[in-house]
Amino acid sequence: MAMAEINQAVHAGFSRKRAFSLAVPAAVLAYLIYVAIAFDLAGLAARARWDNGALLLQDFWSYKTHVTR
Amino acid sequence: MTDIAQISADYRGIAGRKRLYSFLLWGIFAALMISGLRLANDRNAGGFWDGLPQIFAFPSELIGEAIEKAGALPGHMLSYLPALIETLNIAAVATLIGVIGGGFMALLATPGLAPWPRLVPLFRRMLDIARAIPELVIALVFIFVLGGGPVPATLAIAFHAIGALGKLFSEVAENASPKPVEGLESVGANWIQRMWFGVLQQVGPNWISYAMLRFEINIRASAILGFVGAGGIGYALRNAISWGQGRYDAAAAIFILLFLTIVTFDQLSSMARERLVRGNAGGRI
C-alpha cells in the first residue's frame, strides 16, 4: 500500500515534469511567432536592401566616391 | 646601536625620496591636467565656467513644463505603451537568441567540455569579437540594410548578448563537476547527451540568473538604440525631445515609463535570482 502511494507521487512528479518540459519550448515558440508577426518579419524581408549593406561594409577596405553631384 | 641608527637614517632617506617622487608625479599630473583643460576650454565654443550653471537648464525646463501639464501625463503614458511593449519585445527576443547562441558557444569554448579542444581559442576569439563591436555600430549597419524598425535593434543586441553571455556561461561551465560528464561518457553518451544530461543541470541556476541580468541590460540597450532609428520607446523619446518646447510633457511621460519599467524588471529579476541561486525569497531593495 505504501509502495503504491509512493509510486503514485513519483508518477505524478514525472508527468508534471514532462508537461513542464513540453510547455516551456511551446511557450517560447508561441512568443517567437507573436514577435515575428509584431515585428512584421515578412514585410521586412521584402524591404531589405542588401546592396546598401554591401556598400557600407565595402568602406572598411576600399574608398570610392559612390555619389557625385 | 650604530646599526639601528644607520637603518633608521636609511629608511628616512628612502621614505623622503619616495615622498618627493610622488609629489613630483602629482605636480606633473596636475600641470598636464590643468593645461589640457585650459586648451580644451580655449578651443571650445563658449567657456566651461560660463556654461556650468546651464547644466540644469534643460532638466528644469522639462520638469517645469511636465508639472505645468501634469494632467496630460497619464494620457501620454497610455499612448506610448505600444512603443514600450516593442522595446520589451526587442529586449526579450535578443535575450532569447543570446541565451541559446551564448549557451552553445560557451559549451564549445569551455576547456574540458568542448567537443573539439583544439578549437577552444577560436570560439573564445569569436566571443571576444561579438563583445568588442559596439551595439550601436551593428545597429547602424542593420538599419542601413533593413531600414528603421525593431529588427535591426534585436539583431544588434542579440549579437552583443551572445558574446557577453557566452563568456559568463563558459566561466560557470568551467566550474561544473566533470563526474556526471565522465559517467555519461562511460556508458556511451554522445556530446549533446553529455551536455544535456550532465552539465545543464549543474549550470542551470547560474545561467538563468545571468540571462535575467542580461535581460535588464538589454532593456536599457534597446531604449538607447531607439535614438539611432531602431524602433521602440527610445525612438519615441528622441522624437519627443527633438520637437522641443511644447512637447516636453511627452518626453517626461516617456522618462517616467522607462524608469518604472527598469525599476520593475530590476526588482523582479533580483527576486527571481535570489530564489534561484540561494533558494530563499526576498532580494528586493
Automatic annotation (TrEMBL), chain A:
<keyword id="KW-1133">Transmembrane helix</keyword>
<keyword id="KW-0812">Transmembrane</keyword>
<keyword id="KW-0472">Membrane</keyword>
<feature type="transmembrane region" description="Helical">
    <location>
        <begin position="20"/>
        <end position="39"/>
    </location>
</feature>
<protein>
    <submittedName>
        <fullName>Phosphonate transport system permease protein</fullName>
    </submittedName>
</protein>
TrEMBL record, chain B:
<keyword id="KW-1003">Cell membrane</keyword>
<comment type="similarity">
    <text>Belongs to the binding-protein-dependent transport system permease family.</text>
</comment>
<feature type="transmembrane region" description="Helical">
    <location>
        <begin position="20"/>
        <end position="40"/>
    </location>
</feature>
<feature type="transmembrane region" description="Helical">
    <location>
        <begin position="250"/>
        <end position="268"/>
    </location>
</feature>
<keyword id="KW-1133">Transmembrane helix</keyword>
<dbReference type="InterPro" id="IPR035906">
    <property type="entry name" value="MetI-like_sf"/>
</dbReference>
<keyword id="KW-0813">Transport</keyword>
<feature type="domain" description="ABC transmembrane type-1">
    <location>
        <begin position="84"/>
        <end position="269"/>
    </location>
</feature>
<dbReference type="InterPro" id="IPR005769">
    <property type="entry name" value="PhnE/PtxC"/>
</dbReference>
<keyword id="KW-0812">Transmembrane</keyword>
<feature type="transmembrane region" description="Helical">
    <location>
        <begin position="217"/>
        <end position="238"/>
    </location>
</feature>
<feature type="transmembrane region" description="Helical">
    <location>
        <begin position="87"/>
        <end position="108"/>
    </location>
</feature>
<dbReference type="InterPro" id="IPR000515">
    <property type="entry name" value="MetI-like"/>
</dbReference>
<dbReference type="GO" id="GO:0005886">
    <property type="term" value="C:plasma membrane"/>
</dbReference>
<dbReference type="Pfam" id="PF00528">
    <property type="entry name" value="BPD_transp_1"/>
</dbReference>
<dbReference type="GO" id="GO:0015416">
    <property type="term" value="F:ABC-type phosphonate transporter activity"/>
</dbReference>
<keyword id="KW-0472">Membrane</keyword>
<protein>
    <submittedName>
        <fullName>Phosphonate transport system permease protein</fullName>
    </submittedName>
</protein>
